[in-house]
Amino acid sequence: MIKPKEFKKRRNQLMKIAGDNSIIILNGRSEYLRNGDVHYAYRQDSDLYYLSGFNEPDAVLVLCPGSEFGDHLMFCREADPMKIIWDGPMLGTQGVENDLGFDAAFDIKNIDQMMPKLMQGREKIMFKLGEDVAFDQKISLWMKSIESRKWHKSTVPEELMSISHAIHDMRLYKSNEEIKCMKKSADLASRAHIRMMQACQPGLYEYDLQAEFLHELTKNQSHHSYPPIIGSGDNACILHYINNNQPIKDGDMVLIDAGAEFDFYASDITRTFPANGQFSARQKDLYQVVLQSQYDAIAQVQVGNHWHAPHDAAVKTLSQGLLDLKILKGSLDQVLEEKLYAQYYMHMTGHWLGLDVHDCGDYRVDDLWIELEENMVLTVEPGLYIAQNTQAPDAWKGIGIRIEDDIQVTKKGPKILSEKAPKTVDEIESIMNQS
Ligand code: GLY
Ligand code: MN
Ligand code: MN
């Protein structure tokens, strides 16, 4: 659990980046209706959460160095006794001040009246420019209100700047506490993957495994970080398959891409295993190629290597494997140059991971791939998808394999946060055949 002190440290860091003469204004998420009067489960905007630890709707965080109310301000819903009867406890303004370490919190109803005063006299207004048109418009209205009150012209801020990049750059480097949350998230998801391997048998449906996954997460106060992908047979070749409603057949491979969210932090793990607990010779051959490509890619997760190095390594090993198994013909150079592998491996080998499953952060700067640095966290997830509609020899068709782990970049090399999820052929067969 990340402590209020750490959230405050982040806010101070951001104010330092922005400068004393600026004001940072960040809007959180609202509740969204699903149907009738039922809302989607609420989750705070990741940036606002990152800077506050606050998870209630209709909040606006304001960092205003040296204001008469202090530096750390929040507008939010007032704790309403009637609402508490229906929905349970909420922090409200009192809780934000007392529990989250803010200097002052105000009823969100007063924001239009207070914001022009907070903004006037500041040189720079920093917010997530261009991300929420309605909020951009609010900022414009507050600016206009400063003008219309005919305060001295020089008190109207002249610079409007986006704060997103500064926040996203901070989020790219995980603190020790964040890594602990991510490890816990990966441990929970790993246990859920083991549970699914143990439960799997031909004749079940894909959703039966989904139920096992959700059971394991729910009883550990977690939930999924994205809709789980549970594809058997040819469904494993559909990258974003989430119907999860087909029968699992004897002889199928089952691909499960399923991660947990714990304390707001995501894990993202994929495992692939034979439905009947025993790899066929062909399944094993293809699996070993993907596994080796994952080992080779993970070995490239080193401080100073560029973002693309794991992908390059994975593609090379996968391509050689496709040639060795005679799924592709030609030379390695030709397969790489002409991207012949792409009909069986069509995605990138990973992405940043953090509060969001596809976390924020640059991949390139000035047309160059970013260099890996300590405490960045990324996924490494090579795969091969030999769908029925490909050019592959028939014997290979209907197998989709992906192996995905969550990796922390450290000075000592790659640290696999999701190491508890079994992935060698022996480990998987042994787990699936325990009585
Ligand atoms: N689970 C989505 C991904 O692997 O990127
Ligand atoms: Mn992923
Ligand atoms: Mn995934």
Describe the structure.
- A hairpin with a 2-residue loop joins strand 15 (364-365) and strand 16 (368-369).
- A six-stranded mixed β-sheet has the order 6-5-4-1-7-8, sandwiched between helices.
- It folds into two domains: 4-171, Creatinase/prolidase N-terminal domain (Creatine Amidinohydrolase, Chain A, domain 1, 3-Layer(aba) Sandwich); 176-432, Creatinase/methionine aminopeptidase superfamily (Creatine Amidinohydrolase).
- The protein contains 13 helices and 21 strands.
- The mean pLDDT is 96.
- It has helices spanning 4-18, 46-52, 81-87, 92-100, 111-119, 133-148, 164-171, 176-199, 206-218, 281-299, 309-324, 332-337, 425-432; strands at residues 22-27, 33-35, 38-39, 60-67, 70-76, 104-107, 124-127, 159-162, 223-224, 229-232, 253-258, 260-262, 265-266, 269-274, 364-365, 368-369, 377-380, 383-386, 399-402, 405-410, 413-416.
- One manganese (II) ion (MN) binds at residues 257, 268, 270, 404.
- Residues 268, 351, 379, 381, 404 line the site of one manganese (II) ion.
Tag the structure with descriptive keywords.
Creatine Amidinohydrolase, Chain A, domain 1, binds glycine, Creatine Amidinohydrolase, 21 strands, alpha+beta, three-stranded antiparallel beta sheet, 435 residues, 36% helix, binds manganese (II) ion
